[in-house]
Amino acid sequence: MNKKEFMDIMKNSLLESGISDIDDILNEYEEHFLFKMADGFSEEEVSLKLGDPKELAKQFVQEAPVIKVKKKNRFLTGLGLGFLDIFVGCIFLALFIGVIALAAVAISSATAGVLLITKMNIASLLPVMPYKSAVMFSVGLIALAILVFITVVYGFLWFKQLLVSYSRFHKNCMAKASNKAVYPAKATFLQVSGKLKRTLRGTILVSLVIFLVAFIGGYAVSALEAKALEFWHVWEWFQ
């Protein structure tokens, strides 16, 4: 069945069961369809993977004689998730630190590029070179900063998506242990709109080309200025 048929059957089933938060439930499944279809799956494939909408709707019904859930099951599930949270938390912390480190690299590269092109060698942090070489290398450094910054954007968005995905996994595990309704899993891969994805990819391509051209050109100009392929020795950069 297609998306409309699936959503209509689920909506009718929820209405017949007298569920109060129908809109929230339908929004969850609507979002799941959108994400899966953005990854190339057809409406029929998504519907088939989700299962029978009537059966899915039944899990949201709170029956009068609620099934007794052993506290032991909830305790063991919560304990297991607690240990998993510690492990996953360490991974999230490492990812977060990596994103922050890349942001620092982007800022440093952009700052160095600006200082070179404006002839502001603060505290002699940058190597001395002719202005032509400085301009070429500064353009390359700024292009590199843009590349790394986009990587930071991707990293932040992916980090956020992983948090959402793990939060849903955590919630569903506890729901299963309590015999409660389980919502569709959230994707672990990056979820961005097609327009933003194309914009980021285009910027990456342009920045990469500028970076390569600027650094190759900077090397060539520097070699000509110093009349030596190892121009850094001529200008005594490492002495």
Description:
The model is unreliable at about 65 (pLDDT under 50). This protein folds into two domains: about 1-65, no CATH class; about 70-235, no CATH class. About 75% of the residues lie in helices and about 0% in strands. Helix 5 packs antiparallel against helix 6. It is mainly α. It is built from eight helices and no strands.
Topology, pairings included?
Layout (H helix, E strand, L loop, with lengths): L2 H15 L4 H17 L4 H8 L2 H6 L12 H47 L13 H47 L16 H33 L4 H4 L5
Helix pairs in contact: 1-2, 5-6, 6-7
Give the number of domains. 2
Radius of gyration: 28 Å
Low-confidence stretches: 63-67
Shape: elongated
Mean pLDDT: 84
Structural class: mainly alpha
User: Describe the biggest sheet?
Assistant: none
User: Helix coverage percent of residues?
Assistant: over 70%
Gap between N and C termini:
73 Å
Order of helices and strands: HHHHHHHH
Assess the beta-strand content as a share of residues. Answer: under 5%
How many strands in all?
Answer: 0
Helical stretch tally: 8
